[in-house]
Amino acid sequence: DGLTEVLAHRSDNLRDKFIEIPCSEDYDSHKRFAGCTPRKCGRGVTDAVITREEAERIRRIAERGLSLGGSDGGASILDLHSGALSLGKHFVNLYRYFGDKIQDIFTEEDFALYRDVRQRIQHRIAQVFGISSSAMYLTKPTFFSRMNSTGAKTAHDEYWHPHVDKVTYGSFDYTSLLYLSDYSEDFGGGRFVFMDADSNKTVEPRAGRVSFFTSGSENLHRVEKVQWGTRFAITISFTCDPEHGIGDPLLA
């Protein structure tokens, strides 16, 4: 893999770390939105937006939801917006599948915390990139992930391949990850790796840490395979295109 540099150690408590990098041309093939489409690109890490205690509360939401299903392979997904939940080798719609029982699993407080955390992350991204928070829209997919060392059973379980978010999901302009567990304490492997031409830059997850970046090819990345334990995170992504915006999930 060439040289590897750690951008954020688990033991660090980072107020704000930001590295600006030149934007790729990916944004040129999409409609540009003034005051939002990235003109300044880069990647940041902060431990100052979400507390560890909030991250633990968010993780419990993920654990409760994922306890209803789970992939046969090593990567399980829960999307509170669409209702998508890994179940065996497939996905089911949580809301259709469990109906009114959902009220026994999640509370209004859970969804309010989720919304609050999402808003704070959105504000921080806007601040760092010098754009207006109101010009950004939450976009899909936005989801919890639970990863362990179980072997992959389907292509969905193979989370470790290098990819570019804007290529995979055209609507993405800014991607963020909120980590809900600790590298080397709750799991081994599973670090987030930015793959640059000259070296790799890794982020070691810690509960409450937010890693965020512009979604184009300037931030080619992958996640290392989890070797032991369980890694929880939530991916929250934003678009500049209001047509691709989605609302916060509601406990209907």
What's the structural blueprint in terms of helices and strands?
Elements: E1 3-8, E2 17-21, E3 41-46, H1 52-66, E4 70-71, E5 75-78, E6 84-88, E7 90-93, H2 94-98, H3 102-105, H4 108-129, E8 137-147, H5 165-168, E9 174-179, E10 187-189, E11 192-195, E12 199-203, E13 210-214, E14 221-223, E15 226-229, E16 231-239
Parallel strand pairs: 1-12, 4-6
Antiparallel strand pairs: 2-3, 3-13, 5-8, 6-7, 8-16, 9-13, 9-16, 10-15, 11-12, 11-14
Helix pairs in contact: 1-4
GO molecular function, one term: L-ascorbic acid binding
Pfam family, one: 2OG-FeII_Oxy_3
Domain Fe2OG dioxygenase: 140-242
Task: Describe the structure in your own words.
The protein is an alpha+beta fold and 252 residues long. The protein has a single domain, classed as Jelly Rolls (Sandwich), CATH 2.60.120.620. Helices cover 20% and strands 33% of the residues. It has five helices and 16 strands. Strands 2-3-13-9-16-8-5 form a seven-stranded antiparallel sheet, with helices on one face. A four-stranded mixed sheet has the order 1-12-11-14, with no helix packed on it. A hairpin with a 1-residue loop joins strand 6 and strand 7 (90-93). Helix 1 crosses helix 4 (108-129). The chain is globular. The termini are far apart.
